[in-house]
Design goal:
The protein is α/β, with parallel strands linked by helices. Helices cover about 45% and strands about 15% of the residues.
């Protein structure tokens, strides 16, 4: 007897994610979840260095601005400088501090775009807001009164054109980059149930067009896994909107079984076992037994595959050695 819909996701043997690859994850809050999982697995990855972004046009625009050194314009709201192009977590008390922060984060993003093997893009909604005074689409309204904006539903052609422009710019500096799209499984219920469905449908249509047109662009079905395989509110946080830890872990397992090669999976499992050992808290850190454990663990780290950076762990353990 079956109690859920199950579907196969083809193994990506020729587009595998491997240790030694550099990754940049950007988009909705779910992109932070995936990025954190990759970081915990010892991949070279950064997630949303310029804050969470939800609609695809805002995501594509900030990446292109990073490539061309176009800094976001600061505005003063409630005694803090922010930008319509960025999330409110990117803020500062002075304009100079805001500009310096943005430049550092944009430089970091551009450096990763230049060297990354994978760019993971996770749009959450096809809705955007147009600032009536400037007539510009914004990434975040920063709680300014709604009367100053007009809500707009993006169309697939607009999204496709914006991505193509970004794609051409990226390929000039990093021809080997692979783009991996996944629609965020977080539902934007503030838009309304029907409106959320329309929004997600547009994101699916747009990403389908992108992966059909560009051979180095791919799609992973996070949204479909959440809606079909995990169709139960026990997989949601208390807000009944965001996937909980159990759901994120399940989607992560499906992700790594799809995009990790057998060799990468073996290293991932090896690291999982070793990291659990290092989480052990000794009753007496100065005991002979614990000192033996530290030396044994240091030997395992020294023998670990060289394309996995464990230097911080080695340094931390060395500080615990006596004599």
């Amino acid at each position: 007897m079956k109690f859920k819909i199950e579907f196969d996701i083809p193994k990506k043997n020729h587009e595998a994610i491997n240790y030694g690859d550099t990754l940049l994850s950007i988009g909705s809050c779910f992109s932070n979840d995936i990025g954190q999982k990759l970081l915990n697995a010892k991949f070279d990855v950064i997630s949303n260095p310029l804050g969470v972004l939800y609609d695809p046009l805002s995501i594509f625009k900030i990446l292109k601005d990073c490539l061309h050194n176009i800094a976001p314009s600061p505005i003063l709201i409630n005694d803090l400088y922010v930008s319509f192009a960025l999330h409110s977590e990117i803020r500062a008390v002075t304009k100079d501090d805001f500009n310096s922060m943005c430049l550092r984060k944009m430089d970091l993003t551009r450096d990763y775009l230049k060297k990354a093997k994978w760019l993971i893009i996770t749009p959450g909604t096809a809705y955007s807001y147009r600032h009536l005074t400037s007539n510009e689409l914004v990434a975040n309204c920063h709680k300014i009164p709604q009367r100053e904006f007009r809500k707009e539903l993006l169309n697939t052609q607009l999204i496709l054109d914006a991505f193509e422009s970004l794609y051409l710019s990226i390929k000039e500096i990093n021809p080997a980059l692979q783009c991996l799209f996944t629609v965020s499984p977080v539902r934007h219920l503030k838009d309304g149930l029907n409106e959320n469905t329309q929004s997600k449908a547009i994101l699916h249509l747009a990403t389908h067009e992108i992966v059909t047109r560009f051979k180095d662009c791919h799609y992973f079905p996070s949204y479909e896994i959440m809606i079909d395989e995990l169709r139960d509110y026990r997989f949601y946080k208390s807000d009944m909107i965001h996937p909980n830890e159990l759901a994120i872990d399940y989607i992560w397992e499906r992700f790594l079984s799809t995009y990790f090669s057998e060799h990468t999976l073996s290293i991932y499992e090896l690291w999982g076992d070793l990291s659990k050992e290092m989480m052990h808290k000794p009753f007496n850190p100065h005991s002979i037994e614990h000192q033996k454990f530290i030396r044994k663990t240091l030997k395992k780290l020294a023998d670990f595959p060289k394309n996995v950076n464990v230097n911080n762990e080695i340094e931390d353990l060395k500080k615990m050695l006596l004599g």
